Records
---
Amino acid sequence: MSAWDTSLGWSLMTILVTGGSGFIGSNFVHDWLAQIDEQIVNLDLLTYAGNQENLSSLDEDPRYTFIHGDIGDIELVSNLFALHQPRAIINFAAESHVDRSIHTPEAFVQTNIVGTYRLLDCALRYWNELSGDEKTNFRFLHVSTDEVYGSLDPNEAAFTETHRYEPNSPYSASKASSDHLVRSYHRTYGLPVLTTNSSNNYGPYQFPEKLIPLIIHNALAGKTLPIYGDGQQIRDWIYVGDNCSAIRRVLEAGRAGETYNIGGLNEKTNLDVVTILCDILDNAQPKADGTAYKSQISYVQDRAGHDRRYAIDAKKIIGDLNWRPVESFDTGIQKTVAWYLDQQDWVANVTSGAYREWVEKQYA
Ligand code: NAD
Ligand code: DAU
């Protein structure tokens, strides 16, 4: 598809993506360029979670531009808007790990709140100078999380877009704050914003501090598989490619000012997820000593303030925008394990140095 072929009348042919070198962002950039012939500028600070290797296959692609920098750098961001004249911005950049937010909340306040505020403000100044279709069709899409809604009891209905905000960790509080700022820039200044609140993503390029890649990595390394508390916490898993297709759909057809919940319709306990991973690995890469990977499971101290259950009601995006996830948990998790088995060099590169220090601190 060409950007010119859409019914939206886009005249600007560039999108600005922030945090495109992280997990969801790099999947989004790959999927976008595979499907849409349009320039992408990726602004990323390359924190521990950002990895240029994720997008190295695009080094020679004239449609892709990488800019190393901070979303909170007003001068840099203003210059990027002026130079590249994007028709949309998709804000993935964030500190994203709940456990790290418990140890070091400051970084979450800086990037997720202050950084988002500055990005919004630069976008507003740029948008105010546009006119005609360019102004009407501009979008600021903010990528957020279901964690802003807090924790559900076992029998409570899944999160809808109107569920009250009740964040419980410094991470989710910082994302909730950024969502409110985004909303306010629409209500107060008219900036055409969109917000997506998605459930837990999994798939290629996820940093092995998060549950699924951490379990695969530890299992293969013969290490313990740490389960916080009783392992009965529930997450609603979505394959990252499905979240990316939902974000593209919201960008294309979402109504300015609206929020859209995105979920994969896959609620699972953490213990079930770990057990499924162990079973897949038993088949794909049996252990030399003949024991099952499950024998490496170890129950460890629970996360402080641990949310018990998340579940997404995705009726709005399904009904209004005709989007649906393609992957079931069974198909998505098989693909994911196959990717990690095939990409052990990538895993080795990202788990050197600072990663080891994090693991020692978190699982001491
Ligand atoms: P990630 O941690 O893998 O990647 C974050 C990226 O942002 C990295 O490339 C990092 O270098 C970059 N970054 C951090 N601070 C920056 C700054 N100040 N300026 C520019 N770049 C910066 O995160 P992810 O899992 O890919 O999540 C992406 C977004 O989606 C986040 O906003 C997160 O809150 C949201 N989200 C994630 C999930 C999930 O399951 N991973 C689910 C729902 C929502
Ligand atoms: O719900 C969306 C959110 O999902 C995103 O906003 C976050 O950016 C993303 O990190 C993720 O948050 P979680 O805290 O749910 O993901 P994580 O992979 O860290 O943990 C998933 C569950 O597994 C959670 O209940 C904690 C548990 N867990 C995690 C780790 C790392 C363990 O039991 N052991 C572990 O070692």
Note: The chain has 13 helices and 13 strands.
---
Amino acid sequence: MQQARSRALEFVSVAVAAITVIFFTPATVYAQRAAAIPPNSAAWNDKTLSPDTRADLVMQKMSIDEKFQLVHGTGWGVLRAGSPVPAASNHGAGYMPGIPRLGIPDINLADSAVGVRMAALDGHYATLLPSVIALASTWDLDAAHLYGEVLGRELRAMGFNMSIGGGMDLTREPHNGRNFEYAGEDPILAGNIVGQLASGVQSQHVMGDIKHYAFNDQETGRNVVNVVMDKRTMRETDLLAFEIAIKMAKPAGVMCSYNKVNGDWACENDYLLNQVLKKDFDFKGWVLSDWEATHSTVKAANAGLDQEMPGEDFFGVKLQQAVAAGQVPMARVDDMVHRILRSMFAVGVIDDPPVRRVVDPFRGRDDARHIAEESIVLLKNANAQLPLKAAALHSIAIIGGHADVGVLSGGGSAQVDAPGGNVIHPEQGSPIWGKPVYFPSVPMKAIQKLAPAAKVSFDPGTDPQAAATLAKSSDIAIVFATQFMAESVDAPSLSLPDNQDALISAVAAASPHTIVVLETGGPVSMPWIANVSGVLAAWYPGIGGAEAIADILFGNVNPSARLPISFARTDADLPQPTVPGIDPKTNKAVEDASTLKQKGFDAVYSEGLAVGYKWYEVKHREPLFAFGHGLSYTNFQYSDLKVNQADRTVEFQLKNTGNLAGAEVAQLYVTLPASSEEPFQRLAAWKRVQLAPGESQTITLPLNRAYLSIFDVAADQWKLLPGEYKLAIGGASNDVSLKGKVKLGE
Ligand code: BGC
């Protein structure tokens, strides 16, 4: 499919031009929308009724054909060359026609992981936000809500009523090509961040989605891999993240994933869909398949899939036949339809449909910049090299990463179109699948602006010696190192690509004042770490990224972000040094990852419950940078821990002991009683606290039962074990200032 899609996207701009002429006239669009207003007399127009009652009232008036129409999309549309594009489709990734006679609008779905995808097709602008992994680095739930609001606001302005962003597979596999779309390795952090993001989308009356459910934790062989995992591990890792986010956001949609889990495809997996998602999580929305992730009619329908996307290979005529043959009860189809309609009422897309307007690029950029400022992690700062003092700098060498023209973005279906086109290929039209796109947010310009008297020079970094020569003759050298990541491929290793390790080593050898700014989709190894003064993890920083990076380098913004993933020293330190399905000898996929014809294989992730930082603790291994790590230009002091057993809280004093205002992310880690057989701490709570110099605050963190329980498989429920829980509080998972204990569960 990946090959098919890359071809499709190459032709897409031409195809769309033709389609626009043939099918897409303003008149048809407005006619569609006018018809979508329900007659005032319709009983379901009564907003005081519950979404479920309103859906039932609509269903009483629906024909059988109308019901079957809602449970599948209409095909690949603009995503695949040669696919018909329905006249009223909004040119998003998916389209499902509504029922105008009943006032049920079309559902227009747009990929929108980090910004609205494919805006260029209709000449629209879409804000590129920092990656979701960057958002998770803020540990800021308000920022996560704002992130979703930006997506929802822009989707609405472009006429979309459903987002298919909301990626949240855990970073179990640090090589995963889509880690930048996800919220890190901890289920409690990821669940809260993505829950807020999806709530933000839905606050704009645009239906939200959370994906890819579940365990789509690697891209290698994603169409055939069978993830083998025991129930307790499932529930306490990725599924816990989904549980938290789904209960918080109540999203309209959950997208089931391509892979198999314990032998069944995720989109026909009774355990995942019926038992866990719909029963245990009480999910009231609908399950839509990832694009072509539906594999059957009867099994999928009965296992809980509600809508096939993007076409009707299984949920079109075949579903009607299966119902006629008694293999799928009509009640199941009614349930699918009910879930779709009730979500439309619940989120407000019927009462308050999208209104087209010009996207506000300025507001989007301000929001993106604000989130970027909170998301850039200061990993290393030797000898207080940072913040830079502009007055003391006469010459600055900027090296590599196309920092003279832009910042990198992530690829695949999360790709956003750059305003004016990809700045490193100005002649190109729509983005090409698999090719990096740089956005016009220019680090070199932003740095020059903050150091107006300095001579700022650029070297592309393609020749390490030339770069080193420039670095040697400059007061400081800032190397921009990039790693392009995208859907459908995993990183071959943790090493930076394109000889950039050698580049950084050469520059560091020439200049004792070398700072590395990383634009990556996930963790990378840093063999040169001892020789550089400073490192910033800027992820893919979005359209306000250059200014945010410069503001942090020069101290206009005090860094406050914390890692939502561990950085390993080398691939050998990872639970899976090579991604399952990759042949370690050739470093290539054992099977062609792009075709469904390949042979399946099992992925048995050896870390089990101990995902990410937990695994380092179990193995007594030091990561390069630990989960929760991130430096500030000021210092914080923790004191006076009090454990309040009765109301299950911990309380302590946090003081900014430095000379600069700054935000600390105070983190609470808890180790469960030994009977849990979990010999590692887990994140249980945190708080981002902004403090003026010298200011102290009393911080209270909850001991949340849901975050301290284990999943008891025999009883099929969560259980708070009786016993002593060890508490550790500090600024990172490996930087604990306060320790205590509490007895719970008795
Ligand atoms: C991706 C989904 C995406 C869909 C539609 C699939 O290949 O896995 O995340 O939403 O395509 O573009």
Note: DSSP finds 20 helices and 29 strands in the chain.
